[in-house]
Amino acid sequence: MSFVVGVTGGIGSGKTAVTDRFAAYGITVVDADLAARVVVEPGSPALEAVAAHFGADILQADGSLDRAALRGIVFADPAQRKWLEQLTHPLIGEEIRRQIAASESPYTLLSSPLLLESSSQRTLANLVVVVDVPEEVQLQRAMARDNNDEAQVRRIMAAQLAREERLALADIIVDNSGSLDELDDIVAELHKEFLQRAELAEH
Ligand code: ATP
């Protein structure tokens, strides 16, 4: 099993900016959000179960999941949310493990906004990297990227782990409040460190 570095951080903190830089060194990035999409692809047993439970209205004309409709239902109804999570979380965990097992790079990144909230994901990581910026920066960058209004970004931030809680659970904190050039240097150093740690873990 590959040495796994978990990467997490709040909305707009720069997880993608960080993982893109590791990917440029040839490191496999397993993305928990993408894994969550794979398990409900058209034709999957999980999507059939979702359609049977919520009705065919939850599907779009092309047979794919209407994520906005599903979000609307489960965020309004905790029991439905629980039903959905009990179906999908084990499958997402399996998909993540499958992708990690298939990775051929010297170590593997697991990028997940819910790394610290999900014990099954957390236990897959040998090390936890938290990408951190002050909340004001997080807000500005998330708003600029997605054209989201401030209230929407603040709602998402409020639903995520608080900054201090996240930092307390980090093995390594990447301060992404500087420029992208500075981030290049931080990742270059960390890549060297992770290569060494992965090598040590093999012996
Ligand atoms: P989400 O969880 O919302 O997907 P994320 O943590 O993956 O977010 P990114 O998409 O990497 O965050 O970064 C958010 C925005 O901020 C992007 O538009 C990105 O280009 C920009 N950004 C990231 N890091 C920096 C930086 N150091 N300087 C300037 N802009 C940055």
Automatic annotation (TrEMBL):
Pfam families: CoaE. Pathway: Cofactor biosynthesis; coenzyme A biosynthesis; CoA from (R)-pantothenate: step 5/5. One of its GO terms (cellular component) is cytoplasm. Keywords: ATP-binding, Coenzyme A biosynthesis, Cytoplasm, Kinase, Nucleotide-binding, Transferase. One of its GO terms (molecular function) is ATP binding. HAMAP family: Dephospho_CoA_kinase. Catalyzes the phosphorylation of the 3'-hydroxyl group of dephosphocoenzyme A to form coenzyme A. PANTHER family: BIFUNCTIONAL COENZYME A SYNTHASE-RELATED, DEPHOSPHO-COA KINASE-RELATED. This is Dephospho-CoA kinase. It comes from Kineobactrum sediminis. The gene is coaE.
